[in-house]
Amino acid sequence: MKNWILVSAAITLAACGGTDGQPDTEAPSNTLTTPSETLQTQSMQTEGLMTQTFAIINTAGVEIGDVTVADQAAGGVLLNLDVTAIPQGTHAIHFHTNGTCDLPNFSSAEGHYDPMAVNHGFDSTAPNPHAGDMRNFDAPVSGVVQTQVLNERVSLSDREGFAPLFDADNTALIIHASADDYVSQPTGAAGGRIACAVIAP
Ligand SMILES: [Cu+2]
């Protein structure tokens, strides 16, 4: 009995599709799938914010934690930093240009991610800061750091108006030995590079 109802419904839809000149075989499926496809598209746009976690290594190549990068609805990304063995003190953290963490000094990541070619630092002369610039964080005696860092200028999902972290050569997250003074060009006098994460899809 159920089969009969389904078959008869299909025949009815096919007949409807044929009346406006469209092929009988395509019209019914279009009619049935269009509403759900529309809903899925809207859902993807609403939930288009990406979140991804990346491993962080030290200069010996040992994994010391990770960073979860999450697109924010208002724009930019929020970093959830979860690392160990960071020397006590204040440390600079930036996105750098190349998505590589070659040992032993991560110089392969090159300079700060700066697609707009502006000045480094929040306290420097405008236009500033680099897309990859972020506020320093503090490490306690234990070396265990669980903190959040905001970057209002970049995106994971290539959103218009925000520098894409996943560009042609991707990017790298670098933690430095010292604090960023937010003024010195082009690095903030942040010292050596002590940890690195490849930021790539
Ligand atoms: Cu840096």
From TrEMBL:
InterPro entries: SOD-like_Cu/Zn_dom_sf (IPR036423), SOD_Cu/Zn_/chaperone (IPR024134), SOD_Cu_Zn_dom (IPR001424). One of its GO terms (molecular function) is copper ion binding. Gene3D superfamilies: Superoxide dismutase, copper/zinc binding domain. It comes from the Bacteria. It holds the Pfam family Sod_Cu. Residues 65-199 form the Superoxide dismutase copper/zinc binding domain. GO terms for biological process: superoxide metabolic process. Belongs to the Cu-Zn superoxide dismutase family. This is Superoxide dismutase copper/zinc binding domain-containing protein. It comes from Algimonas arctica.
